[in-house]
Amino acid sequence: KQEVTQIPAALSVPEGENLVLNCSFTDSAIYNLQWFRQDPGKGLTSLLLIQSSQREQTSGRLNASLDKSSGRSTLYIAASQPGDSATYLCAVPTNFGNEKLTFGTGTRLTIIP
Amino acid sequence: EPEVTQTPSHQVTQMGQEVILRCVPISNHLYFYWYRQILGQKVEFLVSFYNNEISEKSEIFDDQFSVERPDGSNFTLKIRSTKLEDSAMYFCASSGLASGELFFGEGSRLTVL
Fold first, then answer.
1. Fewer Cβ within 10 Å of end Cβ, chain B: N or C?
2. Which pLDDT score is estimated for A88?
3. What's the rounded Cα separation, in Å, for the pair A17 and A77?
4. Which chain A residue lies closest to B33 (C-alpha atoms)?
5. How confident is the model at residue A50 (pLDDT cuts 50, 70, 90)?
């Protein structure tokens, strides 16, 4: 059974700093991994989808890496801004070829102006 | 930019009442999903739907739940007889590909009294 863990559960950093969020998963036989952002009381916004054949995926100030063999992914946020404050979730398919996602509990990020 | 839309944004109902949550997926997407998030907990999979039938469902998705695509644009989740523990945020999602990037709606908050 796929288990997804995100550490830390919460993180506060001053504006302008670079930061890394971590995601680990137990079953490495995955098609892809997706990072989402969730603002309080809101829906999930897709940030990056990284395929199992890729090592990295970039979008603006965001960079996601994937190491399938070790069951880890990181989300790197450069030059953080107060608007980056949100909960960041990673999700992986529950089984290889399966459509349904297993989510982590998320990292609640606060950027201090 | 295409988006998934959900209605209502918030519904309050009495225990035992039927509830229908509505979703309009992104127009050219073929795979549809419902997820839910109980307050303070992980996002969890309910059901996936493709080619006018359920492709997978979780153990949460019991006989009280049903999904339907009544026309070419809407995708609904019905809860026949709501329980207190059904109180949660319900998210609709769609994807253009199997195991592709999922796009989520803003959610429908269901409160069962």
1. N
2. 98
3. 9
4. A100
5. very high
- CB atoms B44 and A103 under 8 Å: yes
The β-bridge partners of A24 are: A5, A72
Residues of A at the B interface (Cβ-Cβ below 8 Å)?
31-32, 34, 36, 41-46, 49, 89, 91, 93-94, 97-106
Radius of gyration from C-alpha coordinates of chain B = 13
- pLDDT, mean of residues A8-33: 94
Q: Is B107 on the interface with A (CB under 8 A)?
A: yes
Residue B7, C-beta contacts closer than 8 angstroms, at least 6 positions apart: B21, B22, B108
Report, in angstroms and rounded to the nearest whole number, the Rg of chain A calculated over CA atoms.
13
For residue B99, give the nearest of A46, A89, A99 by CB distance. Answer: A99
Which pLDDT value is given to residue A98? 58
In sequence order, what E strands does A1-97 have? 4-7, 10-14, 19-25, 32-38, 44-51, 56-59, 62-67, 72-77, 86-93
Is the distance from CB of B9 to CB of B109 less than 8 angstroms? yes
Taking CA–CA distances from B46, the nearest residue in chain A reads A100
Name the pLDDT band for B24 (thresholds 50, 70, 90).
very high
